[in-house]
């Protein structure tokens, strides 16, 4: 059977978000708060599904997101937390203010695994 689709896909915008769409989403959430993601697109005047709106807000538009490169201190903390928690990215991100689980996961897979391997450390076991 499976899960019901998040929305009617007919007539929805797909692909990259425009500045206008971002502005509509920010304006709506600023006025009404987060939540009710299934009904938000219609109420905000967006032709996107609720899941797309939620992910856009959480991963790109939230005002508390930290922009820019991950610091050396954050590097060390991610490695330490990964050794304790494994690939539980949302738990790890919860301990790094302003960073998302998706950002941490991508950073781990593109940078930190290679860094640990170059140091002779297995990125899964955190042992030589």
Automatic annotation (TrEMBL):
Domain HTH myb-type, residue spans: 9-61, 62-116
Primary location group: nucleus
Top-rank taxon, per record: Eukaryota
UniProt entry tagged with the keyword Repeat: yes
Every Myb-like domain range: 9-61, 62-112
The keyword Ligase belongs to this UniProt entry's keyword annotation: no
One annotated Gene Ontology cellular component of this protein: nucleus
InterPro entries listed in its UniProt record: Homeodomain-like_sf, Myb_dom, Myb_TF_plants, SANT/Myb
Location relative to the cell: Nucleus
Protein name, as recorded: Uncharacterized protein MYB4A-2
Source organism (scientific name): Selaginella moellendorffii (Spikemoss)
Gene that produces this protein: MYB4A-2
């Amino acid at each position: 059977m499976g899960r019901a689709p998040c929305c009617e896909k007919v007539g929805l915008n797909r692909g990259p978000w425009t500045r206008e769409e971002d502005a509509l989403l920010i304006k709506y959430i600023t006025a009404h708060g987060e939540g009710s993601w299934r009904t938000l697109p219609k109420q905000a005047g967006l032709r996107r599904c609720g899941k797309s709106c939620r992910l856009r807000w959480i991963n790109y538009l939230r005002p508390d997101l930290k922009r820019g490169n991950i610091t050396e201190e954050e590097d060390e903390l991610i490695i330490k937390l990964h050794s304790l928690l494994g690939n539980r990215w949302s738990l790890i991100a919860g301990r790094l203010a302003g960073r998302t689980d998706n950002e941490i996961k991508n950073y781990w897979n593109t940078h930190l695994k290679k860094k640990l391997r170059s140091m002779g450390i297995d990125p899964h076991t955190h042992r030589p």
